[in-house]
Design a protein that fits this description.
Low-confidence stretches: none
Structural class: alpha+beta
Distance between the termini: 84 Å
Number of helices: 2
């Protein structure tokens, strides 16, 4: 009169299984959270950076990915010629330009 543990567990299990959509609900919720907290802000930031790079013009002061600050002398489709000091010009990929620095006399945006 010995019954196996599996048989006892099967007998104690509830009669009906939950619907399939309830089973997949946690995965859908995690995907939505991942989308709104990680992917969407990153895509927005990339879009802003792309717009900033397309708006580069002669005379803008920029910060490169290597930490160099200079003024743009010439811009074409893929390169920007940046003057780091008097008479010192370097050719940099536009994609390595991290930020455009506002002029020194400009007012902060939150004032």
């Amino acid at each position: 009169m010995q019954t196996s543990i599996l048989a006892q567990l099967a007998a104690a299990a509830p009669a009906g299984a939950p619907p399939a959509w309830i089973t997949y609900m946690p995965f859908v919720a995690m995907a939505l959270i991942f989308w709104f907290l990680i992917l969407r802000p990153q895509m927005k930031q990339q879009k802003e950076h792309k717009a900033k790079l397309s708006g580069l013009k002669k005379g803008d002061e920029v910060l490169t990915g290597g930490g160099l600050v200079g003024r743009i002398v010439k811009v074409d489709d893929t390169y920007a010629e940046v003057e780091l000091g008097q008479g010192m010009k370097v050719k940099a990929l536009k994609s390595t330009i991290v930020d455009v620095i506002p002029p020194a006399g400009a007012k902060p945006a939150n004032d």
